[in-house]
Structure formats: structure tokens, C-alpha cells
Amino acid sequence: MWTVAPSGTARFWARRMTHETTLHTADAAFVTDAPFAVREDLARDALDEWMGFGSLSRVLEAAGPDAPPLTGPGRTLHLHATDVRQAEWLVDLTGEPITWSHAHEKAAVAVRAPLTDLVLLLYGRRTPADPSVEVYGDAGLLPLWLERSGFWLRK
Questions:
Q1: What global pTM score does this model have?
Q2: Which of 122, 129, 90, 136 is nearest to 19 (CA)?
Q3: Which of 15, 40, 96, 134 is deepest in the core (most CB within 10 A)?
Q4: In the beta sheet, which residues pair with residue 121?
């Protein structure tokens, strides 16, 4: 079956729709001023899924020839959940292919937020300027990466 990622399985769609449903639940909560939080296991998986999409070659291809470069020397991002243990993601944009891992390392840009807010940031429900999100380092790299790695949301 067709999928955005190369897996091509029904499991892909079950996972994808779980995260879409979570985001639409957040949207409904925001409209009604209801509290919202993503269960830790789902939030971790949503971030892992995003990282998997962000490492696809289409992230670089979708930009076009006149777009600012995403990859290059020293271009790394570190996402760190502040409210749970061992919830960190390191995105390596220093070359091709783009890679990611669960690691705690210094990076060109560091993003610290509660786990739910990291998910909401990746899916455009929070911004780097949101009070719950702390951004250190190359502040221009984060929005560029968010735009490029979210290509699959717009296709």
C-alpha cells in the first residue's frame, strides 16, 4: 500500500492515524480551553515518527534549488523533554542522509520543553516563541528544520 515513508504497511497507517487523532484532540482541547496532554508513550512515538520522516531524502528534495541550505557543517539540533527522563532526540544535519538518534549531546540549537509541548511544536501547535519552549543557540536553524521536516504534512 502507498505510504509517505517506504514501509508500505497497514501498521504505518495505524500509527499515523493514532498521532493525527492525538493532534486533532489537542485542537479540540485548545478551542474549548480543556486541559491537554499526550501520554508519554504516544508522545515519544510521535517524536520518533517525526524524526523518521525528517530523515527521508524528500526533506532535502522538497526545498528547491533556491532554498537556504538545511545541511552543513555543525548543523545539529537537540530536543530535550524537561518533564520525563531520558527523552532526548539529536538530529544530525551535517551531511546526507540526515540522521537522528536518542542522545544527549551539545548541538547548534537546543530545544527544551515538556514532552507534550515538543510534540505540539513539531506539529505546528506551538512555536519556538511559546513560553513553554526554550530555544538556545542557532535560533534560525529550528524553524528551517521544522518547515523542511514537516514536508509530509503538506503533501
A1: 0.90
A2: 122
A3: 15
A4: none
Q: Tell me the pLDDT tens digit for each residue of 81-134.
A: 999 999 999 999 999 889 999 999 999 999 999 999 999 999 999 999 999 999
Torsion of CA 22, 25, 31, 37, to 10 degrees: -60
Domain parsing of the chain, residue ranges = 10-153
**Is the domain covering 10-153 a CATH 3.30.1050.10 domain?**
yes
Q: How far apart are CA 147 and CA 21, in angstroms?
A: 21
Edge-first strand order for the sheet with 109-113 is 99-101, 88-92, 76-81, 109-113, 134-137
Q: CB-based burial of residue 58 (10 Å sphere; 0-12 exposed, 13-18 middle, 19+ buried)?
A: middle
CA 89/CA 67 separation, integer angstroms: 25
- Nearest CA to 120 out of 154, 85, 146, 83 is that of 146
Q: Say which amino acid occupies 8.
A: G
What are the strands, taking DSSP E only, across the chain? 76-81, 88-92, 99-101, 109-113, 134-137
**What pLDDT is stored for residue 65 in this prediction?**
76
Contact 58, 84 (CB under 8 A): no
